[in-house]
Amino acid sequence: MKLTEGTELLGLIRSGGELDGRRKLLLTVKLSAPAIVAQLSSIVMQFIDASMVGHLGAEASASIGIVSTTTWLFWGMLTALATGFSVQVAHAIGAGEFSRARSIFRQAITSTVVFSLLLAAVGCGISGGLPRWLGGADDICHDASLYFFVFALFLPALQLNFLGGAMLRCSGNMHVPSLLNMLMCAMDVVFNFFLIFPARDIDIFGVSMSMPGAGLGVLGAALGTVLAETVTAVLMMWYACVRSKDLSILGVKGGFLPTRDCLRKAARISLPMGTEHAVLCGAQIFLTVIVAPLGTFAIAANAFAITAESLCYMPGYGIADAATTLVGQSLGAGRRELTRSFAWISVWLGMAVMTVMGVIMYIAAPSIMGVMTEVVPIRELGAAALRIEAFAEPMFAASIVAYGVFVGAGDTLVPSVMNLGSMWVVRITLAAILAPAMGLQGVWLAMCIELCFRGAIFLIRLRYGRWMRRI
Protein backbone atom coordinates (compact mmCIF):
# COMPACT_ATOMS: atom_id res chain seq x y z
CA MET A 1 0.00 0.00 0.00
CA LYS A 2 1.32 3.42 -0.91
CA LEU A 3 1.51 5.60 2.20
CA THR A 4 0.72 9.22 1.45
CA GLU A 5 -1.01 10.43 4.59
CA GLY A 6 1.09 12.36 7.09
CA THR A 7 -0.25 10.41 10.05
CA GLU A 8 0.69 7.09 8.46
CA LEU A 9 4.19 8.33 7.68
CA LEU A 10 4.59 9.58 11.26
CA GLY A 11 3.54 6.11 12.37
CA LEU A 12 6.53 4.69 10.46
CA ILE A 13 8.84 6.81 12.64
CA ARG A 14 7.42 5.31 15.83
CA SER A 15 7.20 1.75 14.51
CA GLY A 16 10.74 1.65 13.10
CA GLY A 17 9.56 1.48 9.48
CA GLU A 18 11.76 2.52 6.58
CA LEU A 19 11.41 5.96 5.01
CA ASP A 20 13.13 6.65 1.70
CA GLY A 21 14.14 10.12 0.56
CA ARG A 22 10.86 10.76 -1.26
CA ARG A 23 8.78 9.85 1.78
CA LYS A 24 10.94 11.98 4.09
CA LEU A 25 10.49 15.00 1.82
CA LEU A 26 6.78 14.26 1.44
CA LEU A 27 6.29 14.06 5.21
CA THR A 28 8.28 17.26 5.75
CA VAL A 29 6.17 19.10 3.17
CA LYS A 30 2.91 17.67 4.52
CA LEU A 31 3.69 18.87 8.03
CA SER A 32 5.20 22.16 6.88
CA ALA A 33 2.34 23.30 4.61
CA PRO A 34 -0.36 23.68 7.29
CA ALA A 35 2.22 25.02 9.75
CA ILE A 36 3.19 27.70 7.22
CA VAL A 37 -0.46 28.62 6.76
CA ALA A 38 -0.85 28.93 10.53
CA GLN A 39 2.21 31.18 10.81
CA LEU A 40 1.15 33.31 7.86
CA SER A 41 -2.35 33.69 9.31
CA SER A 42 -0.86 35.09 12.50
CA ILE A 43 1.24 37.57 10.56
CA VAL A 44 -1.60 38.50 8.21
CA MET A 45 -3.54 39.41 11.37
CA GLN A 46 -0.74 41.76 12.42
CA PHE A 47 -0.57 43.10 8.86
CA ILE A 48 -4.30 43.81 8.92
CA ASP A 49 -4.02 45.54 12.30
CA ALA A 50 -1.16 47.69 11.07
CA SER A 51 -2.94 48.52 7.81
CA MET A 52 -6.21 49.48 9.50
CA VAL A 53 -4.48 51.57 12.15
CA GLY A 54 -2.24 53.07 9.46
CA HIS A 55 -5.28 54.77 7.96
CA LEU A 56 -5.72 56.66 11.24
CA GLY A 57 -2.41 58.49 10.74
CA ALA A 58 1.29 58.31 11.64
CA GLU A 59 0.73 58.90 15.37
CA ALA A 60 -1.63 55.92 15.70
CA SER A 61 0.84 53.70 13.84
CA ALA A 62 3.76 54.86 15.96
CA SER A 63 1.80 54.28 19.19
CA ILE A 64 1.60 50.57 18.38
CA GLY A 65 5.09 50.44 16.89
CA ILE A 66 6.75 51.85 20.00
CA VAL A 67 5.52 48.94 22.18
CA SER A 68 5.66 46.20 19.54
CA THR A 69 9.06 44.90 20.63
CA THR A 70 7.83 44.58 24.21
CA THR A 71 4.79 42.61 23.07
CA TRP A 72 7.18 40.24 21.27
CA LEU A 73 9.09 39.83 24.54
CA PHE A 74 5.96 38.64 26.32
CA TRP A 75 4.94 36.47 23.36
CA GLY A 76 8.36 34.84 23.39
CA MET A 77 8.18 33.98 27.08
CA LEU A 78 4.75 32.37 26.66
CA THR A 79 5.95 30.43 23.62
CA ALA A 80 9.09 29.23 25.40
CA LEU A 81 7.12 27.78 28.31
CA ALA A 82 4.64 26.02 26.00
CA THR A 83 7.56 24.57 24.04
CA GLY A 84 9.16 23.20 27.20
CA PHE A 85 6.18 20.90 27.64
CA SER A 86 5.25 20.24 23.99
CA VAL A 87 8.74 18.91 23.14
CA GLN A 88 8.37 16.41 25.98
CA VAL A 89 5.06 15.36 24.43
CA ALA A 90 6.75 14.85 21.04
CA HIS A 91 9.40 12.64 22.64
CA ALA A 92 6.75 10.63 24.50
CA ILE A 93 4.62 10.12 21.37
CA GLY A 94 7.70 9.17 19.36
CA ALA A 95 8.40 6.47 21.96
CA GLY A 96 4.74 5.33 21.82
CA GLU A 97 4.08 6.40 25.43
CA PHE A 98 0.71 8.09 24.98
CA SER A 99 -0.27 7.91 28.65
CA ARG A 100 2.86 9.87 29.57
CA ALA A 101 2.08 12.40 26.82
CA ARG A 102 -1.36 13.05 28.34
CA SER A 103 0.15 13.39 31.81
CA ILE A 104 2.61 16.01 30.55
CA PHE A 105 -0.26 17.86 28.85
CA ARG A 106 -2.26 18.06 32.09
CA GLN A 107 0.74 19.38 34.00
CA ALA A 108 1.42 21.90 31.25
CA ILE A 109 -2.07 23.38 31.57
CA THR A 110 -1.58 24.15 35.26
CA SER A 111 1.96 25.47 34.88
CA THR A 112 1.27 27.74 31.91
CA VAL A 113 -1.92 29.24 33.35
CA VAL A 114 -0.15 30.20 36.59
CA PHE A 115 2.81 31.66 34.70
CA SER A 116 0.64 33.67 32.29
CA LEU A 117 -1.39 35.17 35.15
CA LEU A 118 1.82 36.38 36.80
CA LEU A 119 3.10 37.78 33.50
CA ALA A 120 -0.22 39.54 32.90
CA ALA A 121 0.07 41.26 36.28
CA VAL A 122 3.57 42.47 35.41
CA GLY A 123 2.46 43.70 31.99
CA CYS A 124 -0.51 45.63 33.32
CA GLY A 125 1.72 47.15 36.00
CA ILE A 126 4.30 48.55 33.57
CA SER A 127 1.88 49.59 30.81
CA GLY A 128 1.53 53.17 32.06
CA GLY A 129 5.21 54.10 31.88
CA LEU A 130 6.44 51.77 29.13
CA PRO A 131 6.09 54.12 26.10
CA ARG A 132 8.04 56.89 27.83
CA TRP A 133 10.78 54.46 28.88
CA LEU A 134 11.14 53.57 25.19
CA GLY A 135 11.49 57.20 24.14
CA GLY A 136 7.97 57.73 22.81
CA ALA A 137 6.77 61.29 22.19
CA ASP A 138 3.89 62.78 24.20
CA ASP A 139 1.45 62.51 21.30
CA ILE A 140 1.65 58.68 21.17
CA CYS A 141 2.19 57.64 24.80
CA HIS A 142 -1.47 57.50 25.90
CA ASP A 143 -2.63 55.24 23.07
CA ALA A 144 0.53 53.11 23.34
CA SER A 145 -0.06 52.53 27.07
CA LEU A 146 -3.69 51.62 26.48
CA TYR A 147 -2.80 49.19 23.70
CA PHE A 148 -0.20 47.39 25.83
CA PHE A 149 -2.52 47.23 28.87
CA VAL A 150 -5.20 45.40 26.87
CA PHE A 151 -2.57 43.08 25.38
CA ALA A 152 -1.21 42.22 28.84
CA LEU A 153 -4.65 41.70 30.37
CA PHE A 154 -5.43 38.87 27.94
CA LEU A 155 -2.08 37.05 28.18
CA PRO A 156 -3.62 33.93 29.83
CA ALA A 157 -5.85 33.42 26.77
CA LEU A 158 -2.86 33.88 24.47
CA GLN A 159 -0.88 31.36 26.55
CA LEU A 160 -3.59 28.70 26.19
CA ASN A 161 -3.74 29.43 22.47
CA PHE A 162 0.00 28.82 22.18
CA LEU A 163 -0.12 25.72 24.40
CA GLY A 164 -2.99 24.04 22.56
CA GLY A 165 -1.40 24.72 19.17
CA ALA A 166 2.05 23.53 20.26
CA MET A 167 0.66 20.31 21.73
CA LEU A 168 -1.33 19.50 18.61
CA ARG A 169 1.62 20.21 16.31
CA CYS A 170 4.01 18.05 18.35
CA SER A 171 1.48 15.21 18.19
CA GLY A 172 1.64 15.53 14.39
CA ASN A 173 -1.66 17.39 13.92
CA MET A 174 -0.76 20.48 11.91
CA HIS A 175 -4.13 21.00 10.25
CA VAL A 176 -6.31 21.97 13.21
CA PRO A 177 -3.95 24.72 14.48
CA SER A 178 -3.69 25.97 10.90
CA LEU A 179 -7.45 26.15 10.40
CA LEU A 180 -8.02 27.81 13.77
CA ASN A 181 -5.33 30.41 13.08
CA MET A 182 -7.04 31.20 9.78
CA LEU A 183 -10.31 31.59 11.68
CA MET A 184 -8.56 33.89 14.16
CA CYS A 185 -7.34 36.06 11.30
CA ALA A 186 -10.87 36.33 9.88
CA MET A 187 -12.33 37.20 13.30
CA ASP A 188 -9.65 39.85 13.78
CA VAL A 189 -10.69 41.55 10.54
CA VAL A 190 -14.34 41.59 11.59
CA PHE A 191 -13.70 42.80 15.13
CA ASN A 192 -11.28 45.50 13.95
CA PHE A 193 -13.69 46.69 11.26
CA PHE A 194 -16.32 47.50 13.85
CA LEU A 195 -14.09 48.51 16.78
CA ILE A 196 -11.42 50.72 15.19
CA PHE A 197 -13.51 52.99 12.97
CA PRO A 198 -16.55 55.14 13.83
CA ALA A 199 -20.02 54.72 12.32
CA ARG A 200 -19.85 55.68 8.65
CA ASP A 201 -21.39 55.31 5.22
CA ILE A 202 -19.62 53.00 2.78
CA ASP A 203 -20.22 52.21 -0.89
CA ILE A 204 -20.57 48.55 -1.90
CA PHE A 205 -20.97 48.07 -5.66
CA GLY A 206 -22.41 51.55 -5.95
CA VAL A 207 -24.88 51.10 -3.08
CA SER A 208 -24.42 53.34 -0.04
CA MET A 209 -24.77 51.53 3.29
CA SER A 210 -24.65 52.82 6.85
CA MET A 211 -22.06 50.84 8.82
CA PRO A 212 -21.95 50.89 12.65
CA GLY A 213 -18.63 51.38 14.43
CA ALA A 214 -17.26 51.99 17.91
CA GLY A 215 -14.58 54.46 16.77
CA LEU A 216 -12.06 53.28 19.38
CA GLY A 217 -8.98 53.70 17.18
CA VAL A 218 -5.85 52.09 18.66
CA LEU A 219 -7.84 50.67 21.58
CA GLY A 220 -10.21 49.05 19.08
CA ALA A 221 -7.23 47.36 17.36
CA ALA A 222 -6.11 45.93 20.69
CA LEU A 223 -9.59 44.70 21.62
CA GLY A 224 -10.18 43.18 18.21
CA THR A 225 -6.94 41.20 18.41
CA VAL A 226 -7.39 39.87 21.95
CA LEU A 227 -11.01 38.89 21.33
CA ALA A 228 -9.98 36.88 18.26
CA GLU A 229 -7.15 35.25 20.25
CA THR A 230 -9.50 34.36 23.12
CA VAL A 231 -12.07 32.64 20.92
CA THR A 232 -9.27 30.72 19.17
CA ALA A 233 -7.74 29.67 22.52
CA VAL A 234 -11.07 28.17 23.64
CA LEU A 235 -11.43 26.20 20.41
CA MET A 236 -7.77 25.10 20.37
CA MET A 237 -7.83 23.79 23.93
CA TRP A 238 -11.22 22.13 23.42
CA TYR A 239 -9.90 20.19 20.45
CA ALA A 240 -6.66 19.19 22.22
CA CYS A 241 -8.40 18.15 25.44
CA VAL A 242 -11.46 16.46 23.93
CA ARG A 243 -11.01 15.50 20.27
CA SER A 244 -7.29 14.74 19.83
CA LYS A 245 -6.66 10.98 19.52
CA ASP A 246 -3.20 11.26 21.08
CA LEU A 247 -3.79 13.98 23.67
CA SER A 248 -7.43 13.80 24.81
CA ILE A 249 -7.68 13.93 28.61
CA LEU A 250 -11.47 13.79 28.76
CA GLY A 251 -12.48 10.88 30.99
CA VAL A 252 -8.83 9.85 31.49
CA LYS A 253 -7.73 9.73 35.11
CA GLY A 254 -4.72 11.78 36.10
CA GLY A 255 -3.61 14.76 38.15
CA PHE A 256 -2.95 18.32 37.07
CA LEU A 257 -0.35 19.03 39.76
CA PRO A 258 3.06 19.40 38.09
CA THR A 259 5.74 16.90 39.11
CA ARG A 260 9.33 17.85 39.80
CA ASP A 261 10.63 15.73 36.92
CA CYS A 262 8.26 17.26 34.36
CA LEU A 263 9.02 20.80 35.54
CA ARG A 264 12.75 20.12 35.51
CA LYS A 265 12.64 18.89 31.91
CA ALA A 266 10.43 21.82 30.88
CA ALA A 267 12.80 24.25 32.56
CA ARG A 268 15.82 22.74 30.79
CA ILE A 269 14.16 23.47 27.44
CA SER A 270 12.23 26.64 28.30
CA LEU A 271 14.70 28.62 30.41
CA PRO A 272 17.35 29.02 27.68
CA MET A 273 14.58 29.86 25.18
CA GLY A 274 12.85 32.28 27.55
CA THR A 275 16.12 33.95 28.49
CA GLU A 276 17.02 34.17 24.82
CA HIS A 277 13.67 35.74 23.94
CA ALA A 278 14.02 38.19 26.80
CA VAL A 279 17.52 39.27 25.82
CA LEU A 280 16.74 39.29 22.09
CA CYS A 281 13.68 41.43 22.68
CA GLY A 282 15.78 43.58 24.96
CA ALA A 283 18.00 44.06 21.93
CA GLN A 284 14.93 44.85 19.80
CA ILE A 285 13.83 47.36 22.42
CA PHE A 286 17.33 48.85 22.33
CA LEU A 287 16.98 49.10 18.54
CA THR A 288 13.66 50.90 19.08
CA VAL A 289 15.53 53.38 21.24
CA ILE A 290 18.05 53.83 18.40
CA VAL A 291 15.22 54.38 15.90
CA ALA A 292 13.11 56.68 18.13
CA PRO A 293 15.34 59.80 17.68
CA LEU A 294 14.96 59.43 13.90
CA GLY A 295 11.37 60.71 14.22
CA THR A 296 7.75 59.56 14.06
CA PHE A 297 7.99 58.64 10.36
CA ALA A 298 10.99 56.38 11.04
CA ILE A 299 9.26 54.70 14.02
CA ALA A 300 6.14 54.00 11.98
CA ALA A 301 8.13 52.86 8.90
CA ASN A 302 10.25 50.55 11.06
CA ALA A 303 7.16 48.97 12.64
CA PHE A 304 5.43 48.55 9.27
CA ALA A 305 8.54 47.09 7.64
CA ILE A 306 8.97 44.58 10.47
CA THR A 307 5.36 43.46 10.06
CA ALA A 308 5.69 43.26 6.27
CA GLU A 309 8.98 41.34 6.44
CA SER A 310 7.38 38.77 8.72
CA LEU A 311 5.19 37.76 5.77
CA CYS A 312 8.45 36.65 4.19
CA TYR A 313 10.04 34.76 7.07
CA MET A 314 6.94 33.16 8.64
CA PRO A 315 7.11 30.24 6.17
CA GLY A 316 10.48 29.51 7.75
CA TYR A 317 8.88 29.33 11.18
CA GLY A 318 6.19 27.02 9.80
CA ILE A 319 8.87 24.65 8.47
CA ALA A 320 10.69 24.98 11.80
CA ASP A 321 7.51 23.81 13.58
CA ALA A 322 7.45 20.76 11.32
CA ALA A 323 11.16 20.17 11.96
CA THR A 324 10.58 20.26 15.72
CA THR A 325 7.87 17.59 15.40
CA LEU A 326 9.88 15.36 13.06
CA VAL A 327 13.11 15.61 15.01
CA GLY A 328 11.33 15.27 18.37
CA GLN A 329 9.47 12.11 17.37
CA SER A 330 12.52 10.62 15.61
CA LEU A 331 14.60 11.30 18.69
CA GLY A 332 11.93 9.76 20.94
CA ALA A 333 12.03 6.66 18.75
CA GLY A 334 15.85 6.54 19.10
CA ARG A 335 16.52 6.82 15.34
CA ARG A 336 19.71 8.83 14.93
CA GLU A 337 20.17 8.79 11.15
CA LEU A 338 16.51 9.57 10.54
CA THR A 339 16.78 12.52 12.93
CA ARG A 340 19.76 13.93 11.03
CA SER A 341 18.10 13.37 7.67
CA PHE A 342 14.90 15.20 8.66
CA ALA A 343 17.03 18.05 10.04
CA TRP A 344 18.80 18.72 6.74
CA ILE A 345 15.71 18.21 4.58
CA SER A 346 13.86 20.78 6.69
CA VAL A 347 16.69 23.32 6.55
CA TRP A 348 17.16 23.11 2.77
CA LEU A 349 13.39 23.33 2.25
CA GLY A 350 13.24 26.44 4.45
CA MET A 351 16.10 28.12 2.60
CA ALA A 352 14.51 27.41 -0.78
CA VAL A 353 11.10 28.77 0.23
CA MET A 354 12.46 31.90 1.88
CA THR A 355 14.76 32.65 -1.07
CA VAL A 356 11.67 32.82 -3.28
CA MET A 357 9.89 34.95 -0.66
CA GLY A 358 12.89 37.28 -0.54
CA VAL A 359 12.74 37.86 -4.29
CA ILE A 360 9.01 38.59 -4.08
CA MET A 361 9.56 41.00 -1.18
CA TYR A 362 12.26 42.91 -3.07
CA ILE A 363 10.04 43.36 -6.12
CA ALA A 364 6.81 44.11 -4.26
CA ALA A 365 8.21 46.24 -1.40
CA PRO A 366 6.62 49.55 -2.53
CA SER A 367 3.24 47.90 -3.09
CA ILE A 368 3.34 46.13 0.27
CA MET A 369 4.07 49.36 2.12
CA GLY A 370 1.41 51.15 0.06
CA VAL A 371 -1.23 48.78 1.41
CA MET A 372 -0.22 49.55 4.99
CA THR A 373 -0.05 53.35 4.88
CA GLU A 374 -0.86 56.30 2.65
CA VAL A 375 1.85 58.52 4.18
CA VAL A 376 4.50 58.86 1.45
CA PRO A 377 7.62 59.31 3.66
CA ILE A 378 6.67 56.20 5.67
CA ARG A 379 6.07 54.19 2.51
CA GLU A 380 9.44 55.17 1.02
CA LEU A 381 11.43 54.47 4.20
CA GLY A 382 9.71 51.13 4.71
CA ALA A 383 10.18 49.97 1.12
CA ALA A 384 13.90 50.79 1.23
CA ALA A 385 14.26 48.79 4.47
CA LEU A 386 12.47 45.76 3.00
CA ARG A 387 14.69 45.73 -0.09
CA ILE A 388 17.80 45.68 2.07
CA GLU A 389 16.44 42.83 4.18
CA ALA A 390 15.47 40.72 1.16
CA PHE A 391 19.11 39.71 0.66
CA ALA A 392 19.27 38.10 4.12
CA GLU A 393 16.28 35.76 3.74
CA PRO A 394 18.08 32.53 2.68
CA MET A 395 20.48 32.63 5.64
CA PHE A 396 17.74 33.83 7.97
CA ALA A 397 15.86 30.67 6.96
CA ALA A 398 18.87 28.55 7.88
CA SER A 399 18.92 29.97 11.40
CA ILE A 400 15.15 29.71 11.89
CA VAL A 401 14.75 26.09 10.77
CA ALA A 402 18.00 24.88 12.37
CA TYR A 403 16.79 26.36 15.64
CA GLY A 404 13.54 24.39 15.26
CA VAL A 405 15.65 21.25 14.74
CA PHE A 406 17.61 21.91 17.93
CA VAL A 407 14.41 22.56 19.90
CA GLY A 408 13.02 19.21 18.76
CA ALA A 409 16.18 17.58 20.08
CA GLY A 410 15.77 19.38 23.41
CA ASP A 411 19.03 21.26 22.73
CA THR A 412 18.27 24.91 23.41
CA LEU A 413 21.12 26.31 25.52
CA VAL A 414 23.90 26.63 22.93
CA PRO A 415 21.59 27.82 20.10
CA SER A 416 20.16 30.45 22.44
CA VAL A 417 23.65 31.71 23.25
CA MET A 418 24.41 31.82 19.52
CA ASN A 419 21.32 33.93 18.87
CA LEU A 420 22.15 36.30 21.70
CA GLY A 421 25.77 36.75 20.70
CA SER A 422 24.85 37.39 17.07
CA MET A 423 22.17 39.94 17.96
CA TRP A 424 24.07 41.92 20.57
CA VAL A 425 27.60 41.76 19.20
CA VAL A 426 26.85 42.11 15.48
CA ARG A 427 23.45 43.77 14.99
CA ILE A 428 23.36 46.22 17.88
CA THR A 429 26.95 47.33 17.36
CA LEU A 430 26.47 47.87 13.63
CA ALA A 431 23.11 49.61 14.08
CA ALA A 432 24.56 52.04 16.61
CA ILE A 433 27.37 52.85 14.17
CA LEU A 434 25.28 53.09 10.98
CA ALA A 435 22.05 54.75 12.20
CA PRO A 436 23.48 58.28 12.77
CA ALA A 437 24.92 58.39 9.25
CA MET A 438 22.37 56.33 7.26
CA GLY A 439 19.17 56.69 9.29
CA LEU A 440 16.68 53.84 9.21
CA GLN A 441 18.44 52.21 6.27
CA GLY A 442 21.56 51.85 8.42
CA VAL A 443 19.57 49.97 11.07
CA TRP A 444 18.22 47.56 8.46
CA LEU A 445 21.61 47.09 6.81
CA ALA A 446 22.95 46.05 10.22
CA MET A 447 20.07 43.58 10.50
CA CYS A 448 20.81 42.10 7.07
CA ILE A 449 24.51 41.55 7.85
CA GLU A 450 23.73 40.02 11.24
CA LEU A 451 21.15 37.56 9.89
CA CYS A 452 23.60 36.30 7.27
CA PHE A 453 26.19 35.76 9.99
CA ARG A 454 23.65 34.01 12.22
CA GLY A 455 22.59 31.63 9.45
CA ALA A 456 26.21 30.67 8.81
CA ILE A 457 26.96 29.74 12.43
CA PHE A 458 23.73 27.74 12.73
CA LEU A 459 24.63 25.71 9.63
CA ILE A 460 28.05 25.03 11.11
CA ARG A 461 26.49 23.77 14.36
CA LEU A 462 23.99 21.64 12.46
CA ARG A 463 26.88 20.01 10.58
CA TYR A 464 29.43 19.62 13.36
CA GLY A 465 27.64 20.24 16.68
CA ARG A 466 26.63 17.66 19.29
CA TRP A 467 22.93 18.51 19.23
CA MET A 468 21.96 14.83 18.89
CA ARG A 469 23.84 13.75 22.02
CA ARG A 470 20.61 12.63 23.73
CA ILE A 471 20.16 9.72 21.28
UniProtKB/TrEMBL annotation:
The chain crosses the membrane at residues 31-52, 72-93, 113-134, 146-167, 179-197, 217-240, 342-364, 443-462. It is a multi-pass membrane protein. InterPro entries: MATE_fam, MATE_MdtK, MdtK-like. It is found in: Cell membrane. The keyword Ion transport applies. Pfam families: MatE. Keywords: Antiport, Cell membrane, Ion transport, Membrane, Transmembrane, Transmembrane helix, Transport. PANTHER family: FMN_FAD EXPORTER YEEO-RELATED, MULTIDRUG RESISTANCE PROTEIN NORM-RELATED. This is Multidrug-efflux transporter.
